[in-house]
Amino acid sequence: MKVLTQLAENNRSWARRISQINPKFFPTLAAQQAPEYLWIGCSDSRVPANEIVGLLPGELFVHRNIANLVVHTDLNCLSVVQYSIEVLKVKHVIVCGHYRCGGVKAAMGNTQFGLIDNWLRNIKDLYAQHRAEVDSIHDPDARLDRLCELNVARQVSNLCHTSIVQSAWRNGQDLMIHGWIYGLHDGLIHDLGFYVSSVDQIPDLYRVVPAPAPQPVNAKVKKGAGAAART
Ligand code: CO
C-alpha cells in the first residue's frame, strides 16, 4: 500500500538522520536500555510521549492505554510497572493525562461504545464519587477537564497502592511518582503537584505490610522433644 510505503520511507530517513548525527546511537541502544522514566499515558494519537518531553529512544519506558488508567487487575500495565521499577530501576513514574480526553468524556455520558465501556467504568465510578464538585462547574469543557485532572490523581494513587511501588520504597529504592496533564490546545504539560516518594505519604489502609516470615521447620522438632520429655 502506498500509505505504508510512505511510512517505511519515513523510517529509513529517520534512522539515517540519527545515525549521521551519532553513528554509535543504534548499536549502543541495541546493547542495553537504561531509561530513568516510566510514562503512563493515554493512547490518544495527539499525545506522543517521547516527542512532547523531547526524549530520544532509550530514555523513556512507555505504557499507554485509553485514558491512562492504572487498574489493579490489568496484568499488562502492572507488568510494565514491575519490570521498569524492579529490573530497569526507573527513578520517576509519570502518569500523564490530557485535557479533553475522549475516554473521560465517554465515561461521563450514557452512549454505549461496546467492550470499552467496561474499561471506562473505572472513570464513571470516579465521576460518581466527585459528581457534586464536577457538575458544579458550568462550562462543559471545564467540567470534562476537571474530571481529567481527578482521573490523573486517582491513577497516581492506584500506582502508589501497588505492592510493586511500596516494595521498592521499603527496599530504599529512589522512586518518585508524578501526576501531569497535557494540553492538546497548546502542547504544554501542567504539573498537578503530586510528588509521592514514600509509604508515609499514602493512607494506612492502602499500605502493604510484608507477611511475617514462616516458622522455621525445627520448631516442630522442639514441640516433639517437649512431648517426649513429658512421658
Ligand atoms: Co485520552
Molecular structure report:
- A hairpin with a 6-residue loop joins strand 4 (176-182) and strand 5 (189-196).
- With 231 residues, the chain is an alpha/beta fold.
- The model is unreliable at 225-231 (pLDDT under 50).
- Helix 5 (102-108) packs across helix 6 (116-129).
- Helices cover 48% and strands 15% of the residues.
- A 5-stranded mixed β-sheet has the order 2-1-3-4-5.
- It is built from 10 helices and 5 strands, in the order ααβαβαβαααααββα.
- The N and C termini lie far apart (88 Å).
- The longest helix is centred in the middle third of the chain and has 21 residues, at 140-160.
- The chain binds cobalt (II) ion (CO).
- Residues 42, 44, 67, 98, 101-103 line the site of cobalt (II) ion.
> The biggest beta sheet, please?
5 strands, mixed
Give the cofactors and ligands: cobalt (II) ion
Separation, N- and C-terminal Cα atoms? 88 Å
Q: From N to C, what is the helix and strand string?
A: HHEHEHEHHHHHEEH
The helix count comes to 10
- Ranges with pLDDT <50 over ≥5 residues? 225-231
Task: Tell me the β content.
Answer: 5-15%
Strand order, sheet with most strands: 2-1-3-4-5
- Could you say which overall geometry the principal axes of the C-alpha atoms support? globular
Q: What's the topology here?
A:
Blueprint: H1 2-21, H2 25-31, E1 37-42, H3 49-52, E2 60-65, H4 75-87, E3 92-98, H5 102-108, H6 116-129, H7 131-135, H8 140-160, H9 163-170, E4 176-182, E5 189-196, H10 218-230
Parallel strand pairs: 1-2, 1-3, 3-4
Antiparallel strand pairs: 4-5
Bound molecules: cobalt (II) ion (CO).
Cobalt (II) ion binds at residues 42, 44, 67, 98, 101-103.
